[in-house]
Structure formats: C-alpha cells, structure tokens
Amino acid sequence: MNALYARRRFWNFFHFGMAMLVTVIGLVVLLWITWTTLRFGFSALNLQLFRMDTPAPGNPGGLRNAFVGSLLLVGLAVLAGTPLGILAGTFLAEFSQGRRIGGVVRFFNDILLSAPSIVIGLFAYSVVVYPMGHYSGWAGAVALAIIFVPVVLRTTDEMLRLVPGSLREAALALGAPYWTMILRVTYRAAGAGILTGILLALARISGETAPLIFTVLNNQFWSTDLGKPIASLPVAIYQFAMSPYADLQALAWAGALVTVIFILLLSLAARYVLHRSQRS
Amino acid sequence: MLASSSGSPRPSVGDIFFRSLAGFAALFVLLVLFGVAVALLWRSLPAFQHFGWSFLWTGTWDPVRDLFGGWIPIAGTLISSAIALLIAVPLAYGVALFVTSLAPAWLGRPVGSAIELLAAIPSIIYGMWGLFVFAPLFAKAEPWISAHIGTLPYLGVLFRGPPMGIGMLTAGLILAVMVLPFIASIMRDVFAVVPPMLKESAYALGATPWEVQRHVVLAYTRSAVLGGIFLGLGRALGETMAVTFVIGNAHQLSSSLLKPGNSIAALLANEFAEASSPLYQSSLLALGFILFVMTLVILILARLLLWRLETAQGKAGL
To answer: Which residues contact B28 (CB under 8 A, 6 or more apart)?
Structure first.
C-alpha cells in the first residue's frame, strides 16, 4: 500500500515537474524571439526610417513608403471589413435563432478564420489581379479584408449573444422596432466586445505578409496609387531580410520592431477595453 | 432568446431592410469560402488536365521545359508540419497543464496572457529569428547531431547531412515554436471549462492532481484537445513566412531532415510572382488548391471535435 502511494506521488511530481520545465522552455524561446526583435530593431531605429523611402542596397533610406502603403491597405480592409463583419455577426446572433443557416454560417466562418493566408492571397490574385492584368493595391486590400471579416464576425456574434434577453425585451416592450432595439440597445451593450474584435482583427492583418507578396507585389518608390503595385511594410521586411546586404537587413529589423510594437499595443488595448467593460 | 418576429405586430420597413442587409453580409462569408474553392480549382484546371492525377506523385519541377509535379512540396509540407506537431504538442500540453492546474493564480494568469500575446506576433518575425539567430546556432549543433544521432541504426538516416543550419528540420522546429502558443492557449481554454465539481469529486476519492488531470480533465476534454491539435496542424500546413526563411527552398526530397527542402506555401511565396508561362502558374495554383483542400479537411475535423465539447458544455467560449 505504501509502495503504491509512493509510486503515485512520484508520477504526480514527475508529470508536474515536466510541465513546469516545458513551460520554462517555451517561455524562454518566445521571450528570446521578442528580445531578438527588440535588440536588432532598436539598434536600427532612427528618424530616417519615417522620412525616407526604401533604398537600393548601399544607399541611405527608410521605410516611409512602406508604412504609408501598409496604412492604406490595412485601412481599406478595416473600412470594408468592419461593417460587413458586424452585420454578419448581427445576423447570426439576432436573426438566426433556431434556424440551420446560423449554424452553417458560423461553421464556415470558423473555417475561413483559420484558412491559410497564402491561399486567400491566391484567391485575391485570381479574382482581382488576373482579370485586371496587373498587380495592384486593391487586390491586397481585398485579401486583407477577407482575413479581417471572420474575426470581427465571430467576436460580434459572441458578444451580442452575451447581451441579456431582458434588455431586448425591455426595449421591445417600449415599442421599439426590432432594428432600433439592435442599434440602440444591444450594440451599445456589446460595444466594447465588438471593438475588441476589431482591434484583434486589425492586429492579425497588420503583420500578414503571405497574401500581399503576389497581390500588391512591391514598389521601391513613393506611391499612393492603389491601382498599381505599392510598397507595404511586411513585404519590404521580407525582401530586405532575404537580401544579402547588412544595411537592408537592419532596415528589415527596424520594420519588424515597429510591426511587433504596433501589434502588441493593439492586443493590450483590446484586453484593456474588454476588461474595463466587464468591470463596469 | 427572442423570436425575431416579435416587436411590433407587423415588421416595419426598417426591420426588413436591416434584416436583409445582415442576411446578405452573412451570405457573403459563405460565398467567399465557396469562391476561394471554385476560383482556385478553375485556375488550376489547366495543370490538372495536362498532368492528370500523376501531378500528385510526380517529383519533376522544371519551369524551363514546362514539366511540373507536386510531390516534393506536398511531402515537404506534410513532413515539416509533422515535425512541428511532434514537438509542439507535448510542450503545449505541458504549458496548458502548468497554467491551469499547477501554477498559483498570480503566476498562471500572467504566463497565460504572455503566451496569448506571443501568439499574436506575426509569423514573419518567427521566420527572421529562425534565419538570423536560430539557424547559425543550429548549424554549430548539426555536426554533433550527425555524429551521434546520425550513426544510430534506422533512425540515423534522417539526421545525416551537411551542417547548413537551414533545412527541413529547422523549418519544423521554427513551426513548432510558432504553433506552440497557439495550441497552448486553446488547450488552456479547453481545460478551463471542466466543471470543478468533477475534479473535486476525484480529489475527494483521494486522487493525486496528476490522476485528476489524466482521468478526469483529459477524459472530459479529449475530443476538444484533439480539435485544438488539429487547428494547430491546419495552421502549420499553411504557414508561409516562418517556413520560407528556413526551409532552404531546394526542389528536392532527401532522406535526411538536415537537408533543404520545400513546402507548398514556401514555393508559392518564392515563385508565384515570377511564374512566366500559363502552365507554370496553373501548376502553382494547383498546389495552392491542394493545400486548401488539405487544410479544409483538417479544419473541418478540428471544428467538429471542438463542437462536441461545446455541445456537452452548453456553450463555451471557444
């Protein structure tokens, strides 16, 4: 009996010891990656980065056109994707009770949410670049929007379903039409949650590289014309990191640092918004 | 909840308008997924018609002579993902176990949040770390691996090769690091939905914490844990940037994991924009379609497995 007890205790300590070890290993590697980005990034960071365009090897330069290009692409995707995602999420949470269509859309949205981004890029190539005959910023914005929408849809759906039914009933009892009730009551109650979804979706598309490589291609020069190839931060990072020149690699790290800081800030903001709304 | 027909006795114009607007938006999501499948299939038809089914198991990739077969990148995708899961799953399980049942709340919660934040870091950063930091270090370790593990019978063949630092094994390792926080946070969420009552009953019978984890928590969440692993697999299969940097982009499939190889996503990232002939481009799109189908199957399985826990649970925030 005592031997059995000792054996059970041993396996208990063994497994939890392994779990602790593994957690430490995992955290060390992940913090190592973050630290590498900070170290290489900060040593390459300067004001030139925001004032000059992407250079040829050996010349001074920055990432100004890439920043602006990324802002345009991401901004467009957010502008197009936000209403679409919120409306579709509203349909699932408010209009599809007890109907099969709700489950079907929810299921396929989850699939689209995890679909490989490079495949989304191929789709944008096939439906925008190929018919137009040339690479363009529009194609990249389309690809990013397709990645953006499922995240917003899902959080909107979840957050709206958390709104208590009594709130809806109170509004309807006062004579509000159903759509007014949604706009004025449930949206307001779930607002923080929906905003969290938008922020997280924004964080997700900010670093996406794969769907941009063969939709917007790249542009070494200043351009805001979305009908043509345009520079973007992830693609610039990719090309410079793959180049054999140390100065371009340094620029890539600076760009990576800006991306990581931007994304971490967005994720923290999303947590803060959600946390504050839950407390009140 | 409420039936959508409630409210005023007859639906107002605003109701009908808003409802159809929302309905169209929801339909749009279905259309996009359907559109992805159709567009990729349509554009890859020339390659499938030209090469037939043998496209799947032919290893030639010769843009000059317009001869293409998908076997090498398909196999590379599967191998690198398998390596990644083999390493990441036990690690993720350990992390989730630590965070949910081992660590005190003041430690478990920040560690869990840190893991979640790290899951948001874009994959290109993982790729750059792999290329600039990990690969040079790994190149130094490779002679040792070749000398010691490479001499083992059977298994040794996988670990013989030139110490280049980049290759199939490096790609698998970087992928493992990348999917680790992803799988760990899913497992953490899954473990958290186990009703405390079940665990307390087992403790009351005298079970050790490990026995509770093994026979109660894992038994309760088995299908969802598998679903989380499949979600991670779906992620690994289609991952582009973390792999492109370190897989070596060589069109070969060698017995050694230390040698460079290729995956579908890496091949697409490298060659698609430069694919000159229509057949070349169609072959790349065909590979994209194959990747899409592979991930689709895996993701559908993953969602079905995760839903089993959700329905058992009523509703969980998965």
So the answer is: A84, A88
CA angle A100, A103, A104 (to 5 degrees): 85
Res B316 pLDDT > 60: no
pLDDT at B315 over 50: no
Instruction: Give the orientation angle of helix B278-313 with respect to helix B218-238, to 10 degrees.
Output: 160
- pLDDT tens string B269-309: 999 988 889 999 999 999 999 999 999 999 999 988 888 77
The confidence score (pLDDT) of residue B312 equals 64
Cβ-based neighbours of B52, under 8 Å, separated by 6 or more: none
Query: Domain B48-316 maps to which CATH number in 3.90.1150.10, 1.10.1040.10, 3.40.50.720, 1.10.3720.10?
Result: 1.10.3720.10
Question: What pLDDT, on a 0 to 100 scale, did the predictor assign at position B317?
Answer: 41
A212, A174 contact by CB (below 8 A):
no
Asked whether B290 and B279 are in contact (CB, 8 A), the reply is no
- B67, β-bridge pairs: B62
> Does B104 score more than 90 pLDDT?
no
Give the CA count within 13 Å in the CB-facing half-sphere of B159. 18
Which of A123, A214, A252 has the CB atom closest to B35's CB atom?
A123
Size of interface A-B (CB pairs under 8 A): 291
Q: How far is CA B274 from CA B15, B224, B270, in A?
A: 51, 42, 8
User: Is A122 in contact with B285 (Cβ distance < 8 A)?
Assistant: yes
Contacts of B111 in chain A (CB under 8 A): 23, 27
Q: Domain segments of chain B: what residues?
A: 48-316
The total number of residues shown for chain B amounts to: 318
ipTM above 0.95, yes or no: no
CB atoms within 10 A of CB A221: 9
**Residue ranges for chain A with pLDDT beneath 50:** none
Joined tokens for residue A266: 């967005």
Query: From the list B14, B117, B126, which residue is nearest A267 (CB)?
Result: B117
